[in-house]
Amino acid sequence: MKTMREKLIKAFVSHAQGHIDKHVANVEVYLANPAGIGEHSDIMEAIEIEMKQIAEYDDQLEMMKKYFYK
Prior knowledge:
It contains two helices and no strands. The protein has helices at 4-32, 43-67.
């Protein structure tokens, strides 16, 4: 049986990975069809915003692994 600590860590990792997956998918859409993104006239800026989000969640995962995994 998992402890509450293990459950919380697993939930946090799943949450962060879900956000990474979402932002990676967004970048893939921009790269595959940049002309089809009507509300984003500056595709590079939109990609940069997504990459910053990926980096933020990736950093959180790394900190979790570094300080809280046993």
